């Protein structure tokens, strides 16, 4: 059985794809199979991991391995930990202060907002609730002190991984839109 056939049988009842038309369309598991067929391996595994809320260990592991291979600046086990952090941060709830935009909104002074477009101080421009350093350090397998000492290195690798995750999501959504019309 192919991966996509299994995806169709994964018990996915409905899934929401952003249609880019200001609304969301509900799809069935079979629609998902049709929508994903022809996508590259990492996109399929990402979609599967996403659709199963991370309960498909195999798909999560494949995505983690893919992301961890992006860096040679840290040990392989730490790189896997970084990939898990990147995936976690990417699925954190939206920041309520900025509504997920990552930009500071100040409606009482909209002119200065447009001029400066400051990063949201609550989420530091991430648009999502940031993870605590101690939680990140634990996932990477280093101490809080080590994380702080090598913070620039880790955060750089994390933002590269998060860009790649955004890229994967874009590829899935673009592909899905083309398939579904
Ligand atoms: Zn924010």
From TrEMBL:
KW Coiled coil (keyword) present: yes
The record's annotation in SUPFAM superfamilies points to: DnaJ/Hsp40 cysteine-rich domain (SSF57938)
InterPro entries (UniProt xref): HSP_DnaJ_Cys-rich_dom_sf (IPR036410)
Look up the domain of life of the source.
Bacteria
Coiled coil stretches, renumbered: 151-178
What species was this sequence derived from? Vibrio casei
What name appears for this protein in its UniProt entry? Antitermination protein
Q: Which UniProt keywords apply?
A: Coiled coil
